[in-house]
Design goal:
The chain has 6 helices and 9 strands; from the N terminus they run αβββαβαβββαβαβα. By secondary structure, the chain is α/β, with parallel strands linked by helices. Strands 3-1-2-4-5-6-7-8-9 form a 9-stranded mixed sheet.
Length: 217
């Protein structure tokens, strides 16, 4: 793990490296608001820690893993089951900073579907039913993850992002779904451009942060 937490006890560092402890920022049961799985009920696990550093990130409080409690995956899974959730979305921060093999193994053993949202900047770990790759210019994805992605979700902040999206689309596998999503603070300006672009380039689809319109987490 390249991303380091401060002042860990040796036993906690061992469990963190094994993926049995994770810095949990928040968890909640809600409706998936973006991309291919929009509209589905899902339990979100947001893991603290990110060094990708998008200037428009709307969860900057996730960046410093040291302010979020190390939580056992058995506790996390117990919370998932208390809601009878059938699917889990692991997000961040950047969740692939951590070893996610143990968490996903426990979830899969309990017949819970596993989804991840990642920038792809770190090596893939875990067993996933769905991988949403949302690359960031500040820290591009590792080449291997392009072929694993089920969907490519490009956040559009400015005009150049359309060109960048096309470059990314050439790297993913042929079955990968392609989405353009307006950056929330620029949605009024950017969304009409995305609509026009998708009409001309129909291999792309529009993704919206529909959970924000519904006023849910």
């Amino acid at each position: 793990m390249n991303y380091k937490l401060h002042s860990l006890k040796p036993e906690d560092e061992k469990l963190l490296n094994e993926g049995k402890l994770l810095p949990l920022m928040e968890e909640f049961y809600t409706i998936q608001g973006e991309g291919y799985n929009t509209g589905k009920a899902a339990y979100f696990i947001r893991i603290g820690g990110c060094d990708v550093g998008c200037h428009w990130c709307d969860v900057k409080e996730s960046w410093d893993a040291n302010i979020h409690p190390l939580t056992g995956i058995d506790v996390i899974v117990e919370h998932v089951q208390s809601y009878n959730a059938k699917s889990v979305v692991v997000t961040g921060g950047e969740p692939l900073i951590y070893n996610l093999n143990a968490l996903t193994q426990v979830l899969k053993n309990k017949s819970i579907e596993t989804y991840i949202e990642t920038s792809g900047a770190y090596e893939l770990s875990g067993e996933w039913d769905w991988i949403c790759l949302s690359p960031k210019k500040t820290m591009p994805p590792l080449e291997k993850i392009y072929q694993e992605a089920n969907e490519l979700k490009v956040i559009v902040f400015n005009q150049h992002d359309f060109k960048w999206a096309e470059e990314l689309a050439q790297k993913v596998n042929p079955e990968c779904y392609l989405y353009l999503q307006p950056e929330w603070s620029k949605r009024t300006e950017v969304l009409p451009k995305i609509v026009d672009y998708v009409k001309v380039n129909p291999k792309w689809m529009v993704s919206l942060q529909s959970h924000k319109y519904m006023n849910i987490p």
